[in-house]
Structure formats: C-alpha cells, structure tokens
## 1
Amino acid sequence: MRKDISQVVIKRMPRYYRYLRYLMDEGKERVSSAELSELMSVTASQIRQDLNNFGGFGQQGYGYNVKKLHEEIGKILGLDKTHNLIIIGGGNLGKALASTDAFSKHNFYITAVFDNNEKLKGTMINDIPIRTMDELDDYYAKNRVDMAVLTIPAEHAQEVADRLVKLGIKAIWNFAQVDLEVPDDVVVQNVHLADSVMRLSLNMIQREKQVNIENGK
C-alpha cells in the first residue's frame, strides 16, 4: 500500500468490501460506480478515485465485476491472510470480543486472552483459556502474534503497550480510553466508545437544532 493513501480512503475500504458482499449475496455480477454511489452515499467520482489508489479494477462501459472487486479489496485489507490476535484484559469487553465469531469470518483469530487477575486463570472463553500476564512473554516467544487488543483500564494501557512493543508487536487495537504513545513503526487503531456515543449525542443535538430552524422555532 502506498504511504500517501489517506486515512479517509482507508476507512472507506471495509465499507466497499461489506457492500460488495451484499451485492454478491443478491446475485449481482457487475456494478457501476453510480450504483455503488446510491448504495453507499459516496459520490461515484469519489468511489473511482478511491479504487484508483489501488489500481482501479473497473472497465469503462462495464463497471466492476462484483466478485472480482470483492476479492481484490479483500486482498487490500489483508483478508486473504490469517491474523492471530491476543486480548489483554479478560473483563466484560474482552470476554465479549473473544466470544464472537465475527472476526474469524474474516481470518482474524483470537488465540489467547491475558489478565492480571489470578482468579481468572484457566477460565475458558470460546475454548480459549485466560492466561496470566506473567505468561505473556513466553507465549509470544512460542506463538505467532500479529495484533494485540487492549481492553484494560486507561491507567494501565500505556505500560502494557510499552511491553507489547518491546516484545515486537506491531499492531494494537486499543479500547482503553487513552491515546497511546508508540514508535512510528507500530500501528494503533483507537476505539474510544465514550467518544463515539458523545459524537452521536452531538449529531442528535445538531439535527434537532436544524429541524427547529426549518420549523421556524
């Protein structure tokens, strides 16, 4: 992937993948950028620009082969490879993530869960035993770990992230309510749940204000 591809474009790629899957399930064999535009509320020109970052894939007068484009975007997203994830934090969120099969459908496999609570050791989540944090280094040395998921309190997140970076992990999915400081060669995807619901609240307030203006209130 070229380094100059914007995060905005990268953010849209999973949406393309998801909508193309929907079209495949509907039996659609080809689709134009205009048709994708109607489905996704993204302009047709923007769709073409996004896909041209990775090679284009379309044919003038034909559009896109749905199955082929779905496969190509899957490769761009790395879904043609398996990815092993470990979860740090065996609380409610960690258990919920380990229990779902949503990730394995896309070749992301949660292989281990770690927690500093000794009482949780050996507890099974979806056939995955919870291990203690003192087992982390040995586990990493003996197993392939591509990504780490942090579902721990904010006050411990940076310390754990530093430990993961020292081990050699290059990708962290961070659910802790804090922004992590990591080296440039480590990728972090932050998921701040409270931020999301606050954005939802703000959008709701703004929408209500607009409706009131339109209604002359």
Note: Helices lie at 7-25, 33-40, 44-52, 66-76, 92-99, 136-142, 154-167, 193-214.
## 2
Amino acid sequence: MERTFKITIHMVSSLDGIIAKKDNSISWFETSDHYEKGVEITPEEAGEFLKKIDCYVMGARTYEHALELSRSYGWAYGDTPTIVVSHRNLPIERPNVEIYSGDLAKLVNERLKPNYSNVWLVGGALLSADFIRLKLADEIRLSVMPIILGDGLLFFDQIGQEQALHLKNVTAYKSGMAELHYEIKK
C-alpha cells in the first residue's frame, strides 16, 4: 500500500483575517470568550494529534518570530523536523531545523514526499499563497479567534487567483475559537 502524503496549511487568524499584529504580539490568541456548546481538547489529545505531524514548513519571518517566542514559551514545534524557506542566512538553534532556498515544487517532490506523510505549513502568508498558487498544498485548517483586530498582516492578501475549496469539517471550541477545515480543489 502506498503511503499517503498531504500538505496542510495551518493558520490562526482574527475574524477579519489578520494573522499578525504590526508589533507581532500574540496576546490576542488568549481569549476570555466561552462557548458553552464547544468542544474541549485535553492536553493528551492535543499531544497525540501533534505526534501525527511529521514535518513543519515555515517562512523566515515565522521562524524568527517562533525563535523569539521560544525564549519565553519554549520551541512550539518540539523535535519534529522543521524546514524554513528563506534566501537569508538565518541562525539555526535546533538540530531539527534546516534552511531551504530554492524551488518549492522541488522541495515538495524531492524532499518532503519521499520522507514524510503529514506536513504542516505553519506560516506565513506569502509562503501559504505560493503553495496555493503552485497547487502544492492539499488542505487549509484555519483557526479563527473570537476577535476583530482591525489592522495587521492579512492571511490572504492579493493571492492573485480564485481557488475553489471543499469544506471538510468545522469545529467550535469552548474558547470561542472555530476551526475551518477545507480541502483545496485541484
């Protein structure tokens, strides 16, 4: 049986589609909202889910922000292999992190597909748009926080093409966050 392979774009945004405030603060991730009908995920369930992700891909700015946050909160991606797409020379502070500079289709077909099954692209907006435009991503999981930020970096800002999606699932959480899970139609 052939191994399955998929690339999931995961993003957290405000209701107005903003994924980062201009100051890069993440305080807006914390919500005081409560949705009684929502589900709650235990830390054990979250840990089991994260174990299924066998590689992360991110852009340079997301990586730099993750490094900054790791000083206070720890490295969010654990020991899972992480590929940072960048043309810049970035500091490598973990043995499971590598920098990739080059063709994205080559990255997917020659590096990711042969070695991984469940790849998550976790930022940023430009890299996500490139993966969608090049038809390299299979699905989008958008976690919408119960807040309107009004200003900042948009998730989809001038992607440049129409893209049909198929809604696979919607999950509402007790925190008021809603996760939209879409398959990207190719």
Note: The chain has a mean pLDDT of 94.
## 3
Amino acid sequence: MEEREISKAVVKRLPRYYRYLGNLLEEKVERISSSELSRLMNVTASQIRQDLNNFGGFGQQGYGYNVKHLYKEIGKILGLDKTYSMVIIGAGNLGQALANYVRFEKRGFRIIGIFDVNPRLSGVSVRRIPIMMIDELGEFLGNNKIDIAALTLPASGAEEVAPILTDHGIKAIWNFAHTDLHLPEDIVVENVHLSESLMQLSYKLNHMI
C-alpha cells in the first residue's frame, strides 16, 4: 500500500504536539479534548483534528484523546521509537552545545562521534566523546553505522564534507551551515539557518500592529 503524502506544514506541527502531550503526561493528565489542546497550543481544534486524521484520528467522540496513547503514537510517527546514531562535524560553540544537549539521547539520538579541523581540539572530550580530526572521518564512518550527521561548520566546509558523508551511506543531514546543500534526492537534508530565523523575528518585531 502506497504511503499517503503528508504536507510539510503538518509534519512541522507534529513535534509541537509531541512536546505538549509530553508536558501533559508529566502533569498526570489522562485525556484531553481537541478544544482543550487547542487553547494550550493556540492552534484551532479543527486544525488539530485534521492533522491527526492524516494518521487515523486517535480520538473518540465525547471522550477526546488518551494523552499517553496519542503521545506514544505521535512518537512512532516521528520515528522516536527507534535509536539513531549521530556524528557532529564541527566542534565549535554550536557543535559542542549540541553534543552537550542530553535530551537528544532521551529521544533516541545517540551522538557517537565529533569531528573538527582544529588540532588544538584533538582529544578534547565533550560528554566523554573525544573530538577527532576531520581526516579521521572516512575511517570512522567505514567502521561505524551512522544514521545522521549534524554539520556545524562554515559553508565551504559543509559543501566539502557532505559528499564524504553520503559516499559512506549517511542518508540524513542536519545542516546548520550557512548554505543550502544540493545532494541526491535520496538524501534527507534539514537546513537550520539561524540567521534567517533571527531575520524572521526582526521582521515580525518591525511589523507589529
């Protein structure tokens, strides 16, 4: 059976649903209606129902949603019932901040390698993971199955290292470099351009009514 194509807007909202439902679980909330969830998230109840109906609905008329069940099912949809091995390429401030973010492991994203070009960082450990030099990357990828690579290095470096990653079978790249990577269609790339996000914030600030 062919998988139904889900819009990017719906996919973008799923992690937010997951986060709010996780908060509700911590507060011991057992069930919630789309109207109640709507008020919490500032998303219309109709939008919530439409989004979740893409995956089967999960709710019951007059009962709402079982929070634990919905949290678990959205986790499965997001692939969070699996474990992914990651490497970080670029051990500057951003790269080390990502490596130090412990919630990644709680979500199943396990960082097993960090790489950089700065020889002064060689052997320095971040959360017990020693930083290796970029010339060791090929051998490391050959000896380890890596699912995701995070690029936190300059644009030129990202463009240079991306083919090495894809040549070693990496299918997903989390790109923080200031460039859009153009890779084969079977490679999943999530571009995170922090400066563009800040400019969007600036626009909103300067067009407030």
Note: The two ends are 49 Å apart (CA to CA).
## 4
Amino acid sequence: MDVKIEVENGVLSISGERTYHKESKDEDVHRIERSYGRFVRTFTVPVALDTTKVSAKMENGILRIHLPKTEPSQKKAINIQ
C-alpha cells in the first residue's frame, strides 16, 4: 500500500492507493479478496500543532501518526515606560 501524509492549515490528510490482492488455494476452497484503488481521508486537527515534529510509522498494516501539540504561550507582564 502506498500512503502519503500531509498536514497543512489545521488539516491532516492521509491519501494513498491500495493495490489489488487476490489469493486462492486449490485444496479446500480458500479465497481472499481485498478492496483496492485510491483513497483520501482528511481530519481537522488543533491549530496548536507542531508540524515540525509530526511523525508516522506503519507496522503490521497499522498506521500510527504522532501529532505533538505546541507549547502554550506563557503569560508575560509588560512594563509601561
């Protein structure tokens, strides 16, 4: 499976293409068919997302995406001159 991940303007997009997979065995009928073709999924994510630290890992057919939040800005007192 070919997968592409993008994060832009608070939107996470996962797109890719599933390839055709068909398996059959002559002894005792055993058949596996899986859907195939292009797909796109989009998700709205928090605006406070640190896009420089986004990571993804595919293991055993499971896609895990880590979307770390940015540190909230600290309150700062401003002196008037």
Note: The domain at 2-24+31-66 is CATH 2.60.40.790 (Immunoglobulin-like).
